[in-house]
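yo, Oxidoreductase is done. seq:
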Amino acid sequence: MTDQWDVIVVGGGPPGENAASYAIQGSSRTAAIVEKELVGGECSYWACMPSKALLRPVDVVDAANALTGVRGATLDVAGVLKRRDQFTHNHDDSSQVGWANSVGIDVVRGRGRITGPRELTVTGTDGTERTIRANHAVVLATGTTAAVPPVPGLREALPWTSRDATNLHEVPSKVAVIGGGVVACEAAVWLRALGAEVVMLVRGDALLGRSEPFASALVAERFAELGIDVRFNVSVERVSRKSPADTGEGRVHGGPVDLVAGGETLVVAEVVVAAGRVPATGDLGLDALGLSLKNGFVEVDDHLTVPGHDWLYAVGDITGRALLTHMGKYQARIAGTVIGARAEGRPLDGPRYRDVADHDMVPQVAFCDPQVASVGLTEAAARQRGIDVETVEYDLGNVAGASLQRDGYKGRAGLVIDRTSDVLVGATFVGPDVAELVHAATIAVVGKVPVSTLWHAVPSYPTVSEIWLRLLEARGEDSS
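structure:
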């Protein structure tokens, strides 16, 4: 194998794969991905895919039991875990490597570290080192890792992180989940559905604290119905574990765990730490370039180029812009396109060469129960930016399509509207299966579609998308 390519990408997750593919497509350029674990990255094996594979059966059973005439569905825990393993290919990345090779991307196994302009040293699993060079560009796509708060005794207790929770091979009898964000809420849902008693220890006063307040409230209400014990304004003070043991990913890591939180001692079989992510930049050799990182994240311009180094790019979580796989892939498509244009001496004219969406137009979904799908700014965030906004909300349970989906459908939707321009700057949907609603809102936000125009986007009946009409009616606009 050569030691020189036109483009070298460090990190083989979806953003890294996209960056490499877009940088060479339709050309004779060469590319390599340097990956220290599995090609396909966190998303494919430890995050998006296994978590959604665990949540979907839970959704289906819940939906069935909410329909008169269908009730009685149950989860087969072993079957659910087997299906999850099918989606992660039992951590075999040969199909991903095969795809990379089929589009002209080589895979270099090992840990990559920058040692000079367009130069990296790769340390293999056997400790041997190899120097490789890029003719045009190096792309950093190493993502983030789970943060473990500096709580006395916590790290020594060998707690589960998100990797263990998504790849669980045994269901603990009782679990304490530290955190109240997306990862914490999703894990709480499937752990409870699979039979664990779940206690959530949340430092703040709301679940999904960056969401609209009505979304946080509905999720908390549903968690109470599910029997998930959520404790707000609680900090874990110390942790101790009897006989901690590295029993393997997704297996209970030893004996009972004692947690002192809010002055109370809680005894559980396992602890899941879901308290945020930290950028995987510590061993990339960025000090050799004199880069100053912002809280460990690599700053980039809207071409995804690292300022002062026109050959160096960063995409995905490592940029700190939006820690979401789909946004990392979006950034990677832009970076790859920019690399190709620069390699061919073409100008970077037009929006395709710029990251636009990361400027207040990010869509995301928390696949908990209920789902929370949103795009753009919340009301609070919009007001912080000085935007004069108005909001409108509507009960999704009063939409015919939603009530047909399940008996007693509970949900809510809200829009954030810029009064000056009369366009949406944010939207939030909460309820079962609302994830598919967010793309229409994303188009409206990114396209700056006037609210008056949305009146003429007629929703099919009876579908949940009729919520758009109900929201406009609730605002009190006429159809002119």
